[in-house]
Amino acid sequence: MTELTHEASLEHAHPEHEGTGVENRKLGMWLFLSSEFLFFGALISNYLLYSNRAGFPGVYPSEIYDIPFTSVSSFVLLMSSLTMVLAHNAQTRQDVNGTRTWLFATAALGSIFLGGQVFEFTEFIVNFDMKLSTNPAASAFYVLTGFHGTHVAIGVIMLLSLWGISRRRGGLSDRQGLNLELVGLYWHFVDIIWIVIFTVVYLLSVPPV
Amino acid sequence: MTATAERPATTIFRRPSSTKGLWSWITTVDHKRIGIMYGYAAFSFFIIGGLEALLLRIQLSQANGEFLTAGAYNALFTMHGTTMIFLFVMPASSALMNYLLPLLIGARDVAFPRLNALSWWIFFFGAIFLYSTFIFGTSMAPVGVDGIGGVDGNLAPGGGPGSFNFLADSPDGGWFGYQPNAGPLYSPGTAMDYWALGLQIIGLASLVSSVNFLVTVLNLRAKGMRLLRMPVFAWMTMITSFLLLFSLPIIAVALFMVTFDRQFGSLFFAANAGGDPILWQHLFWLFGHPEVYILILPAMGIVSEILPTFSRKPLFGYSAVVFAGAAIAFLGFGVWAHHMFASGITPVAQAAFGLATMTIAIPTGIKIFNWLGTMWMGRIRLHTPMLFAIGFVAMFTIGGLSGVTHAVVPSDWQQTDTYYIVAHFHYVIFGGAVFGLFGGLYYWFPKITGRLMNERLGKVHFWLMLLGFNLTFGPMHWLGLQGMVRRTWKYAPETGLEPWNLAVTVGAFIIALSIFIFMINWFTSRRRGRESGLDPWDARTIEWMAPNPTPEYNFAVPPVVTSLDHFWHLKYQEDVEGRAVRVADADEIVANIEHEQLNPSSPIHLPNPSYFPFFFALGLPLMFYGVIYHRTPWGKALILVGLVISLAAIIGWAMEPLEEPHGGDGEPADHELDDRVELIASSAEGGGGPEGRRAAPGGETESGDD
Ligand code: HEM
Ligand SMILES: [Cu+2]
Q: Do B250 and A42 touch (CB under 8 A)?
């Protein structure tokens, strides 16, 4: 993502281009995210393939999900999309304090979600003895949710960077404002993926009988 | 808040400014220089991959050959395939796309020049990482596994623990790394890790450039260049980028799964623990089939530029060619299981994928007939680029036809894993993609050097290569139908396969000779070739309105496009009988445009060079070495070092001033660009006018600098 920010875009050099009208970096972000959809699509398919194959040794992830707990952490992540929108909205209104607050809130909610994931993994490994190498279903679960968690973590880092820049410079420039919008796009994407994971992986998958 | 506030006072983040020497290449963000680096790298790997192939062919030239061990043979065909696909054809296409895309659409550079440099450096380090397996990698026989290891000659060890065997200690699971053969159980040792992680890095490079090219095509076209006025090569670049964008994430997931299996004990493909090897095949080919179109579509684009130029006719059915390209790409995502007809997928799936595969022949046929229609009744000039384009059409058609024969499932059961398949994909990839790429090199050589390649040597190269190619891959059809299996390192004399195998080997050496002649031609013509002038081929598209060799700023005045084949229509008009009549000279046209539209007071803005793409890319292989050796303390340390380097580079990248302060012009006009190249102004001051500037090609780019 950071690769996509701050790029010396040539667009302004000669505005008389034929084009989509979407700013270069924003278009780049959309394209990148469309690729990411397939990345997670493949990971989710892997999980679905293995999650209800009978006969593996050890526990299946679907036997030990703590749905109430994960519902709460999913709700937290969902709320972070709301705070992200508020941050963007504050930025467009040039409300420096508001932007900063909501950016921080988003990062904080994201971190809480990550904390939940760490707790969940620990729980599964320590109490239920389900490791990456327990069976293919467990492998698929950890790699899928692990990659999602990594995406959230990268998002948190980007949010905190924006927050830090805003604090040091007393606000975000227009250019940084665009970065905020890009981080927002990324953040909503990560949330949407989680909604899919929560629904398909947690709520709908049942252990094989 | 403006850009001024974002410019740190320190000089640490000053942007580099050298224009000559090694640093200028390391820090360049110029799409043309990046293209040149891609080109030389790709060609080097073509030579390496070719030498590997020659070793394979020496082994097979006689029955019961003793030249290579089985382990070395496995390693060499794996590295040959991997090299030719990922380190030669893809980057070679990338080279031409980089160099030409902005020129074709009338832009000054790609949308994200620094990201472009990043793609190149990631590719570069990824390729080195992959090849370092020959030095660091180990490939061991799975001794003791189910009692099969080491006993059967086919599983003979490459190096074995503690030993060092330069050729054999490299990946040996085939270019598609089938599981569980390439998994931890049957391929212990680190070589397959180098393969999986190397491809992961190289894939990232392609992903980044696909985003970059797409934004460039979608947002940076010259005024008037509507999508359906773009040259076909620009179209194919765009379609290829979409294919990359949607297929790379799938192979990325698959390669991550392999790495997790091999390094961290996950069980995705561990057949003995319930893992599903067929899943690997699905994921690999879901990427792999689009990949073959990633290889061929750029060449189809190149050929669609060459054929009209040398037939002196517009491309027959331009929009049909474009839409057929899009249709091929779209259908290409729905046929992957034709690589798995022998894997036990259900009969319904076999029938469906067989039929789907056949439908691809329709848009492919449309293209072929349009190319023929382009040449039909044309006033054909058989210059070297044209020869290669015609060679492409002929050879690719043969490959396409054998492709349809294995879309027929029962027939494919006979063909799969035999030399018939080897013949098929070499006709499409070598006869197709590689012929097309060579055509493109001869065609656009003047854009890069300002000179023409030697025609006579070019023709010798073409005819030798055509002969060698058909002698090499033609007989493979019948060898395969006679039952010679693919990837065998020995065959018995009684099989009667020897004569044709010898012919194949001779053919391979003829190809090698032709490539040698090409290299002589390239390196002598670069310095001593005939000067090309502005428009050596009487071309149709606007990249030829920029001077040769292309200056750093591409176009002094970016063209305003009014039609397809814009340049041609400026040069020719139809008379009453519908014949094209020349109305203007190419040099005149460009001189006039510059005379009328050149605005000396508005300098050309070009992006600054940057250190950070290089360093960001440098961190990746370090991290991945660390992953391979993560069980050792220094492995963990390497991960950390790589991470620190890449993170530091990202921070530097973000902090880098978007422009260097420049004297006089107090207003940082467009925030992101500098006016390092004030050529227009200086040439106007020099009084030489546009003609004067073009008369001194090359040198002035540097002279205008700092
Ligand atoms: C009319 C177009 C084409 C058709 C119908 C077709 C069909 C097929 C089929 C059915 C196979 C699987 C054979 C087997 O493994 O049993 C195959 C293999 C292959 N094709 Fe094509 N193909 C076409 C065009 C291309 C193109 C354009 C390329 C590359 C530029 C290509 C590259 C390959 C490669 C590399 C393989 C071998 C993969 C392996 O190692 O198993 N094909 N083709
Ligand atoms: Cu295929």
A: yes
pLDDT in tens, B388-404: 999 999 999 999 999 99
Query: Which residues of chain B fall below pLDDT 70?
Result: 1-15, 17-18, 141-165, 600-603, 657-706
**Quick one: fold of A29-203?**
Four Helix Bundle (Hemerythrin (Met), subunit A) (1.20.120)
Task: Look up residue B302 and give its two tokens.
Answer: 């190149």
Of B207, B230, B253, the residue at which a domain comes to its end is B230
pLDDT at B336: 94
**Total count of domains within chain B:** 2
CA A15 to chain centre: 34
Give the residue, by CA position, lying nearest to ligand 1 atom 36: B425
Q: Please say whether the beta carbons of B302 and B443 come within 8 A.
A: yes
Pocket of ligand 1 (CB under 6 A): B 176, 292, 295-296, 338-339, 357, 360-361, 364, 400, 403-404, 406-407, 412, 415-416, 421, 424-425, 428-429, 432-433
Range of the domain at B585: 542-595
From B268, B262, B335, B272, select the one nearest A45 (Cα to Cα): B268
How many A from CA of B193 to the centre of ligand 1? 26
Residues A109-152: pLDDT tens digits?
999 999 999 999 999 999 999 999 999 999 999 999 999 999 99
Encode B639-650: b = buried (16+ Cβ within 10 Å), e = exposed: bebbeebbeebb
In a domain, B470, yes or no: no
- Give yes or no for a contact between B683 and B692, defined as CB atoms under 8 angstroms apart: yes
Residue nearest to atom 14 of ligand 1 (CA): B416
d(CA B485, CA B459): 35
Neighbouring C-alpha atoms within 13 Å toward the C-beta of B386: 18
The answer to whether the beta carbons of residues B269 and B258 sit under 8 Å apart is: yes
- Judge whether B57 lies within some domain: yes
In this prediction the pTM is 0.89
Token representation of residue A185: 């796009």
Cis peptide before B549 (omega within 30 of 0): yes
**ipTM at complex level:** 0.91
